[in-house]
Description:
This protein is of the alpha/beta class. The chain is 38% helix and 15% strand. The strands form 6 sheets. The chain has a 17-stranded parallel sheet, with helices on both faces. Helix 1 crosses helix 22 and helix 21 crosses helix 25. The radius of gyration is 32 Å and the shape is globular. The two termini are 44 Å apart. Pfam families: LRR_14 (PF23598), NB-ARC (PF00931), Rx_N (PF18052), WHD_DRP (PF23559). One of its GO terms (molecular function) is ADP binding.
Amino acid sequence: MADALFVILRKIALSLGEGVLERIGTELAEIAPILTDFEHSMKQIEGELSILKAFIDQVSIHKDGDKAFDAWLDQVRDVAHEVEDIIDEYAYLTAQNQDTSSFFKRKFHQIKNFAAWQKFPGQISQVEARIQRLTEMRNRYGISVGELDKGNKLQQHNKFSMSDFAYLTDNSEIVGNIDGITRLTQWLLEEKQDRTLIAIFGMGGLGKTTITSSVYNNKRIRRTFDCRAWVTLSQTYQAEELLREIINQLIDQRSSMASGLTTMSRMKLLEVIQIYLRDKKYIIVLDDVWDKDAWLFLNYAFVRNSCGSKVLITTRQKDVSSLAADSYVIELKTLKYAESWELFCKKAFHASTDNKCPENLISWANKIVTKCQGLPLAIVTIGSILSYHELEEQVWKFFYNQLSWHIENNPELYWISNVLNLSLNNLPSYLRSCFLYCSLYPEDYKIKRKLISKLWIAEGLVEERGDGTTMEEVAECYLMELTQRSLLQVTERNECGRARTFVMHDLVREVTSIIAKREKFGIAYGDAGTTQVLHEARRLSIQRGAKSLNSLASSRLRSFILFDTEIPSSWIYDISSSFRLLRVLCLRFASIEQMPCVVTELYNLRYLDFSHTKVKEVPASFSKLVNLQVLDLRFSYVEELPLEISMLTNLRHLHVFVVHDVQQRSLNCFGSTKFLGNICHLKNLQALYTVSANKYLVSQLGNLTLMRGLGIMKVQQSYIEELWNSLTKMPNLSRLLLFASDMDEILNLKMLRPLPNLKLLWLAGKLDGGMVPSLFSKFEKLTQLKMDWSGLKEDPISSLSHMLSLVNLCLNGAYDGEQLTFCAGWFPKLRSLQLVDMEHLNLIEIEGGTLMSLHTLELTGLRNLKAVPEGIKYIRTLDQMFLTDMSNEFIERLLGSDHHIVQHIPDIRNFGSSDTQEANNFISLEYLTKKYGTGALKYSPAE
């Protein structure tokens, strides 16, 4: 709950950041006193909400399961949402009054909305009264902080303290993780004098406690140590009680009680443990550790006595596991399907002698096991429940279809929701809303790092940290923290090892969706168990079944994300009429040819996505969207941006291009978008892809000093000096796409200053002198290089070999010679190499010891290459080899006499000259998957 207040408090601060009177003028004098009173009242409400947030932060973790407290929190949430509605309405009216199209339009808006301005005093009075009643209710029902531990945390309720013990029964029932158990046993038995700290890390429900317990209770292990203790820390613990519990397990409890432990201070208790362990070989398990702080004083207690002692930590937090040396960390993963099936059958069919699933239930049992996605806690809990259900197909089908309901309401599934909830409840306010937002995506959807970051920022969920750090970078820190907390899993990394996509475990998403819906944060419509949209919902993603949703009665929506593409454009135009206060509108892959008229009236809009649609035009009325931060028109049909785009001074990301050639084998593979306005006004722009160059535009680009990514087309040699001068004024520029105007244009890049932070360069067009420019020797940070139609006369490989950080290299028609040579030691980090359309190339020489990290090799249109390069046999890291439009002789030798060269490559695909469409489809599929995740393909129309 505190996370909602956290976001709303930030909104209040931003809304009061500059006086509205100064922004909208004083042409309607009647508004002035309303605005003055509004700002005064909002400051008072801000103070009240700040205190409420502090109170909730302090007390909420100790009130879990307290129904009175939960009901009171629901009231707080409603008040917070009322405040948010007032702030957003205020921002909406303010933006209308700032309409700069004409004095008369501005005046019209002010008069038309005068009644709306007059409602503010009454609405604020109601909110103030409700806040007062919240305080009275809190006192009336005794909702208070309670007695705090002296300088520490409160004792955790026992019902949560042994979360992973939900399926701790018999060691013979443990399935999977054999390697982990073996390693852990070896570490505990190894003859090593120094005290060893071992960590077992993974998401809740993986069986960290179970595995640790099976080893801890092993008779051989028990005989190895002089004494042992097992304590559970959980999210809250009382330090003195924790130390007393350790002493009680190490020492006879009666003697420890007699020695006055109950009254000892923390330091005295530490001293008792130190003295006792001084000359003993001990093993101590710290189960369910949530932060590093606990180790600060426990490390002091567990003496390093050179007796070969061991300390085991189980945790869901990666930073906690880092307390142990890397060589002593076990990261648990979900079970493989075969292991999941074995464990499920052991529980669900334990009454049968062979634990075998009846034939009539195999289909539904498979679906249930798949849903559990290898999480042992869920498999065992659900299997145990089903063990006393009738073995009839209809019964199991009904259970599966109602699984979402069971997780939320069935007390027998208490362990699943509560174990997973522990991770969610432990999130700080700034992370919780961000994580709830992830639940709006479909099941198994690959969440893109760049996309989710932009959505969080648009929703106001990401804080400004200053010091030159962008909000995009802060959002990326949020993502990393969520992965370290085992709430998101990284599913794909880019060539540099940076996380590209993330996924939520199905059951984590299920539990999170339930919370998001209950707290009115957001709803995934069409998801299992969700067939209606609550009036109070703030965010809505429609995953399927959109046609059954006839209207949206609520104007409270802040995000609308459409995944269901099988709906007519008329439905979209109708439904969008209720989007008054929207901040995020994502209609990617929607079947529409023009933007809904209402879009330009969404004054609070921050994020607008019409990519992969048939939209052809951006209307001039876009000038009204003064708050817009992201405009995404990739793969649309828009080829010209109106003058009015330059009025969107808050734009941070502008993506607009038409794709003509998916394989990117031609100079005009992208359409060049004309930018008609004065681009120097867009001073907040960080990414711009792609615009058509002209003399005026290239000179103005230097004003965009925050730019990090730029794509510019139709570049002429006469623009180069001015363009490069502008680029050098962008200190953070890391991605540059530069395309010459046509195949005859020759670009001279000599004598130009380097761009020190460039990581990606795509250079298309002939280069002066047919040589790699000396400028390239300064690109020390470059990780991706693509050169198209460069007209190079000499082998470029040696000129590029100094690029030690390069991970992706593509030469597309770049070289007119006959031979390329890769010498030993060159390109140590290169993972992907593409050689395309070099018609004279007949020999590729690869020495042993080069390209030692290469995973993907693509050869396309090298019609004069007859033999498979012999040196490929040295590249043992190769996973994939893609061949497109190669000569028949090359393919024959590949399959015959030269097959021994490539026999170590597991995935080789060949597309002949007659397979152009198949190659296009394959490459398009690969491209879209990398750019947008598999979810985009799953929900995209087949075209």
